[in-house]
Design a protein that fits this description.
By secondary structure, the protein is of the alpha/beta class. About 40% of the residues lie in helices and about 10% in strands. The chain has one domain: Spore Coat Polysaccharide Biosynthesis Protein SpsA, Chain A (Alpha-Beta Complex). It binds 2-acetamido-2-deoxy-beta-D-glucopyranose (2 copies). One 2-acetamido-2-deoxy-beta-D-glucopyranose binds next to α3. Its main location: Golgi.
């Protein structure tokens, strides 16, 4: 019975959001003459206008998405909030996800690809660490081929500082999208933390006695949900759907999406290597469902004889969750595993994927990964070290390594050097943190909505 109530609640939330989206679409049709919401545009004017709303959301009036088009709707959104900042932000975000203004779009639509070169979009999950994002963007800027990608920044925090970083990208097409169920947008209710939720460590008997909202749904370890931890998995799964199904610039995208996070850092030849790996996949491992740009192991020794080698392995979340790239076929396999992904009691998206590789996907995943990584992590200092994190020091170290080996970068071709014994890998523990039925239902809803 509880379960029904939660389902109904989630449904109500989703209906409300749908209604908001429709209202905004209508506004878009009518908007004229209202004031500017200065300084609000995250992506600013889309050069040449954003892609037309052909086949976007049903019922949307065809709109001219010119450079002034944010003014009236944003003003309307602000007015709608009635001075309530949370409501204002929600409207803004729905509006932007709907309109999808792509900056420098002509670079993407006009890109010239060589024979066999796959179109590539980068999808970066961005939380709130501007300094890391700045470094990632700097690493992208210097990489030949970057001008051909569509850069999608998927945010769960609206922040002027992050928007300014996105606005400063002038070397490739950029689209900002916003996870619409973030804690920022729902600060005091699900999917954020509701004051009526059970505290994490409350015993279930006491929780039932108190009647807190999710008393019946602790995780496998008897803990209640923590919104901060649940958000990352939600965001990951939402953006997977949104990128493959809702981003108009990626409609029928026949190439790869490369998934990154704000604290990743790219080698200058990442794009070239990604294309080589893709070619290698076609030739030597058509059933490699994933490419990874590198694992975490520290690089020892020089790059000679290694920078043009890739390994073929069973996919392991702890090694190959960075710089993952895959095509639509892999997405479709994942889509078919929605229920398994959303109900698995682990708040880590990557461990959950590991679970899918043995319990839902048609076969465990094989991955091609270069011996010398082309993606690095600048963010681990926060997790394991007490001292202040200095991402710029990390990236300087990485640059020194790359620079010392620059004659080995940009390999002409790549080959598979090692084939490890391939076998399914089960997650050895389940981490919990994902026992709440509301999380399950919201997570399952992404494939249907927006
Ligand atoms: C963009 O704004 C400029 C200045 O207001 C205007 O002249 C131009 O026509 C606008 N372009 C579009 C596509 O709306
Ligand atoms: C703003 O709106 C939200 C959502 O309806 C509500 O929960 C919150 O209390 C409002 N904030 C203020 C300050 O009124």
């Amino acid at each position: 019975m509880r379960l029904r109530i939660y389902k109904r609640k989630v449904l109500a939330l989703l209906l409300a959001l749908g209604a908001a989206a429709c209202a905004l679409a209508l506004w878009g049709g009518a908007g004229a003459g209202a004031g500017e919401a200065a300084g609000e545009e995250p992506a600013g004017p889309a050069v040449g206008g954003s892609s037309s709303s052909s086949g976007g959301s049903p019922g949307s009036p065809a709109r001219q998405a010119g450079n002034a088009s944010w003014g009236p709707p944003l003003a309307a959104a602000a007015a709608e909030g009635g001075g309530n900042e949370t409501l204002r932000l929600r409207s803004l975000v729905y509006r932007l996800n709907f309109d999808q203004p792509v900056r420098h779009e002509a670079l993407w639509t006009g890109r010239a690809l060589g024979a066999g070169e796959a179109p590539v979009a980068l999808v970066v999950q961005v939380h709130e660490r501007a300094e890391h994002l700045r470094l990632l963007l700097a690493s992208l800027r210097r990489a030949p081929g970057a001008e051909k990608v569509l850069l999608v920044l998927s945010h769960d925090v609206w922040a002027p500082e992050l928007n300014a970083l996105a606005a400063a990208v002038d070397f490739c097409a950029v689209l900002q999208i916003f996870f619409p169920f973030s804690r920022q947008l729902y600060p005091a209710e699900f999917p954020g933390s509701d004051p009526r939720d059970c505290p994490r460590d409350l015993g279930q008997a006491e929780a039932l006695r108190r009647g807190c909202l999710n008393a019946r749904y602790p995780d496998a370890f008897g803990h209640y949900r923590e919104a901060a931890f649940a958000q990352t998995k939600h965001h990951w799964w939402w953006k997977l759907h949104f990128a493959w199904e809702r981003i108009r610039a990626l409609r029928r995208h026949p190439g790869l999406l490369l998934f990154l996070e704000e604290d990743h850092y790219l080698a200058p030849d990442f794009y070239a290597v990604l294309q080589r790996l893709w070619a290698l996949r076609q030739r030597d491992c058509p059933d490699c469902q994933l490419l990874s740009l590198g694992s975490y192991a520290a690089v020892r020794g020089g790059f000679a004889q290694r920078a043009d080698k890739a390994e073929l392995k069973s996919w392991k979340s702890t090694e190959h969750n960075m710089g993952m790239a895959f095509a639509r076929d892999t997405y479709e396999q994942l889509l078919a595993c929605t229920d398994a992904f959303c109900a698995y009691d682990d708040y880590n998206w990557d461990w959950t994927l590991q679970h899918l590789t043995v319990h839902c996907l048609p076969r465990f995943w094989k991955v091609l990964v270069p011996e010398i990584p082309r993606v690095f992590h600048t963010g681990d200092c926060g997790m394991h070290h007490k001292k202040a994190c200095r991402p710029a020091a990390q990236s300087a170290k990485i640059d020194a390594l790359l620079d010392a080996n620059r004659q080995h970068l940009f390999p002409e071709a790549m080959s598979v050097s090692k084939r490890y014994s391939l076998a399914p890998v089960s997650p050895h523990v389940k981490n919990g943190g994902w026992g709440d039925i509301r999380d399950h239902e919201l997570c399952k809803s992404y494939r249907r909505l927006q």
